[in-house]
Design a protein that fits this description.
The protein is globular. It is of the alpha+beta class.
Length: 512
């Protein structure tokens, strides 16, 4: 690394703060424009055992919400608001994300300096991050940050004209915020700030959709990707001209939105927040957060009634069996059975009774089922396959198993995911594949798999808001980020992906 003393005044002091484990978790840098950019560029290339990753989030033009979205992206969580970000970091499982130093240049140029400073203060109280902020003394935002335990690095320098660097104002989009083409192509920071500064204008429904899915929209790379995300969360009360316009803009994207049901929709109605999903033939089973399991047509989300089941409280997993039976896992980790219309074979009844008895003593954390087999995950990282020929077990994860899926194919197999962020493939009775099928630095939240005419597919969702649809045999995948936290995923026999959120339910189909 270049000499910090020669190249950047104040850098030596800043690096001293970074390496001092007892230093305050918040550092204020005064003056020295460009110092934080330099620190990010010359930081550790990878976060090792004793190193912290460095995440640069320029604050120019950002609101507190826009800052929260950017920080959440770096830390592998999803946040709908600054408060959500703080709660997610304080209470959630964090996967394998390294310790992070947030580098926040140009607080004075933020759209909401005081609100951003309040968020920074809350973040600095968490044990997961350390924060460096470039702030100007004498401002209200600086005073707020300086109230707590803080290190101040004075890196005052003058620019070539002998004056302090001027902030660059975020461009104003004005009436363009109602134009989907302009919104999808514009700087996402400017779009976010524009919508937040004009709460009285819904812009035909674009504003609501943008603020609902903004974290993914700000991270999306192309206008087509942004149009696709907006389509997924656009309610049926929006300007009817928006959907065809967004569909045209999304044409280059690798997905098509077949249908979406968003909070407030009436035709067909939104089925409510999703806690768990599963597909049984042409029927989509959607469990809400209160324990009700609604039945929907998988082709168009038409309501088909409700599942008559004995569970009280939240259903955390749904596992339809080939004979029409539906197995449910409740929030206490116990198994429940809803029989189908056809009589069950006695041996299948004995199998589920045995699994139910086991889980009453050792609660499960994940559930799946195929012909003659029930698969359960546990909090210690093991997966258990209860079958007609006996019990097979494998320790597949470091930490709790959060999801399992089973595939009925020529050689049936199981996929599992855990808080370690890994998705693994395992054939009961054999050694697990040592290579993860997929892996991210965030806990897995849901898995779904099925056999299709083109081979087995697997959908995986992580706590960072990413969903991937994998062709298991070819080891290829396609990703999608809907914006809000993903609660559950499902796949249909014809290869479609269904994504369940707190405020939307979306069916996506691959192009080609």
């Amino acid at each position: 690394m270049p000499s910090v003393r020669a190249e950047r005044p104040g850098a030596a002091a800043l690096l001293g703060w970074l390496t001092d484990p007892d230093a305050p978790r918040l550092c204020l840098v005064t003056g020295g424009p460009g110092l934080l950019d330099w620190l990010a560029a010359h930081g550790p290339r990878a976060a090792g055992r004793h190193r912290s990753a460095r995440a640069l989030v320029p604050l120019t033009g950002r609101t507190a919400l826009g800052t929260a979205w950017a920080v959440a992206d770096h830390l592998g969580v999803v946040a709908a608001s600054p408060g959500d970000l703080v709660r997610a970091l304080a209470t959630g499982e964090t996967g394998r994300t390294a310790r992070t130093v947030l580098l926040l240049p140009a607080l004075h140029a933020a759209a909401e300096p005081a609100a951003v400073a309040a968020l920074v203060t809350d973040l600095a109280r968490l044990g997961r991050v350390r924060v460096v902020v470039e702030a100007r003394p004498g401002t209200a935002a600086y005073a707020l940050l300086a109230e707590g335990r803080v290190t101040v690095v004075d890196a005052e320098v003058e620019d070539e004209d002998g004056e302090r660097e001027n902030p660059v104002p975020a461009p104003s989009l004005g009436s363009g915020l109602s134009d989907p083409a302009l919104v999808c192509a514009a700087d996402p920071v400017a779009v976010t700030t524009g919508y937040e500064s004009d709460p009285g204008d819904a812009h035909g429904g674009l504003r609501t959709a943008w603020l609902r899915a903004g974290q993914a929209l700000c991270a999306a790379r192309t206008p087509a990707d942004r149009a696709l995300v907006l389509l997924g969360v656009l309610g049926d009360g929006a300007d009817p001209r928006l959907r065809p316009a967004l569909e045209e803009l999304a044409a280059p994207a690798p997905w098509r939105v077949r249908w979406t049901r968003v909070t407030g929709d009436v035709a067909p109605p939104w089925p409510g927040p999703v806690g768990a999903l599963a597909v049984q033939g042409g029927t989509l089973l959607a469990a809400d957060l209160g324990g009700t399991v609604r039945l929907l047509a998988a082709t168009d989300a038409r309501p088909l009634g409700r599942l008559d089941h004995p569970v009280t409280g939240r259903v955390t997993a749904l596992a339809p069996a080939p004979d029409g039976t539906v197995l449910l896992l409740d929030e206490r980790g116990r198994l429940h059975t809803v029989r189908g219309r056809e009589p069950r074979a006695p041996y299948l009844h004995r199998l589920t009774e045995a699994v139910s008895t086991t889980l009453s003593r050792h609660p499960g954390t994940a559930l799946a089922a195929i012909a003659g087999s029930v698969v359960v995950g546990d909090r210690l990282g093991s997966v258990h396959a209860f079958g007609l020929t006996g019990l097979h077990q494998a320790a597949l994860h470091s930490g709790r198993v959060t999801a399992v899926a089973a595939v009925e194919s020529a050689t049936p197999f199981v996929c599992s995911g855990g808080t370690d962020g890994a998705v693994r493939r395992w054939t009961p009775g054999k050694e697990a594949d040592p290579r993860p099928l997929a892996e991210r630095r965030a806990p897995v939240v849901s898995l779904a798999a099925t056999e299709t005419p083109h081979g087995p597919i697997l959908a995986a969702a992580w706590a960072d808001g990413t969903v991937e649809l994998h062709d298991v045999d070819r080891r290829t995948h396609l990703a999608f980020r809907p914006g809000p936290p993903v609660r559950s995923v499902a796949v249909t026999d014809d290869g479609a992906l269904i994504v369940g959120l707190d405020e939307a339910l979306i069916r996506l189909e691959r192009v080609g």
